[in-house]
Amino acid sequence: FNTKYREMLSRYEPCRPYLEKRLYPSREHWARYCISKIFTAGVESTQRVESINGVIKKLVDRGTLLKVSYSH
Questions:
Q1: Using CA of residue 67, residue 70, residue 71, residue 72, what is the dihedral sign?
Q2: 45 FRET partner, CA 20 to 30 A, in 33, 38, 52, 62?
Q3: What is the pTM of this model?
């Protein structure tokens, strides 16, 4: 983590005060940053999930079996 954090500080030098004051204190929650290729600063969106749920609800109802819905 520390190596990646130092690289980020170097790359985004103008943001250093913000990163050190706001983001570094929550560093224990940054595992995804260290293993992921996309940095989100811990912000996650449910928009994609909600969108997929909307599509599924249009295609199936409560009585639809998983096997039937998979074949569509």
A1: positive
A2: 62
A3: 0.39
